[in-house]
Amino acid sequence: MARRGGCLINGCLGVLVLALVLVVGVMVSFWNTGREAEADARDQVTETVDGARARLARAAADGVLLDTEIERAVQNVGKTNEAVERRGGRVTVTARFIGFVNVGFGGSQASGCYRFDVGRAAGADPTVGVRELPDKACLFQSGRPYREPVAVAEDITIELRTAVSDGGPEGARSAEVWKTSGIELADSEIKDGQLVALVRLSGGTGPQGEDCYEFRAAKSSVTAKKLKPDGCYRFQRERDAQAERIRRAELEAGARTIERRMEDAMADGRLTDAEMQLALALPRSDGMGGEAVGEPVDRLEHVERSSTEVVAVARVETGGAMWCYEFRARLATESVPHRYLDNGCAF
Q1: CA–CA distance, 314 with 318 (Å, rounded to integer)
Q2: In what order do the strands lie in the sheet containing 222-226?
Q3: Statement: the pTM of the whole predicted model exceeds 0.90
């Protein structure tokens, strides 16, 4: 019994030791994974800072570094006005960068506060120095989440001058400035060698805190003008109006065809529901350049009869539109005037 009890104790100890080894192994594995993830997150920060430094240098190459260019160059952070300082010919940008790596059910994060010092010596290419600062250096107060739209519009105008000079109106339409946070190219058109862009700028007093501006960019000039809040829908309204004109013209052509058919059916002095249904079945394209007879479905919504006329409200259906019309068949004159019902079918 003593030997058997000893074996049981030894066996339990063995299991406990194995379990302890497994737990320690898992903990070490998680610790190593966490360290690797932290290093990867730190590498992300370093890569982003290096990329920002290179983009700032490219943006400053023409001798002018705009706030819109800074916004695009220093990515990975929501900057404020206080992050950018201009003194003489030098520009200082302070920003916080964050790196994150997913690990299991959580993740590892690294961050750093960096200051970029952009300057240019006479006759030399711009230089961009960068150094890491204590985190508290990035705890500046934010007066506004976005700059005043009027100031942003000035930067856009400058960038568009370069874009239209290099690539014409198409170059201005695809300019890098439209990728700037707080700038939304709502709509645009190119006509007579000029780009007209309707743009929403954040930080304004309009709906959703946005102001609408119109920019006109041509080789000769670039202008900016603030519009009313609904101004950024102007092109869409014009397209909608054109589509409505096309729709109404298509429906009106169908209604005239139906009118002639009903007049032909009235040759015997009467007009039956069946004859009206045949008149309403307009031919449609068969997809091969020909026409197919309309389906014999019920398109009559309402019919009123008297001894002198038949008034029918019916759906006019063409290949791309449908609406309700009133057809007033005058039996004595065999005429069928029609009218478009603004409120559609009321029956």
Answers
A1: 13
A2: 183-191, 194-202, 210-217, 222-226
A3: no
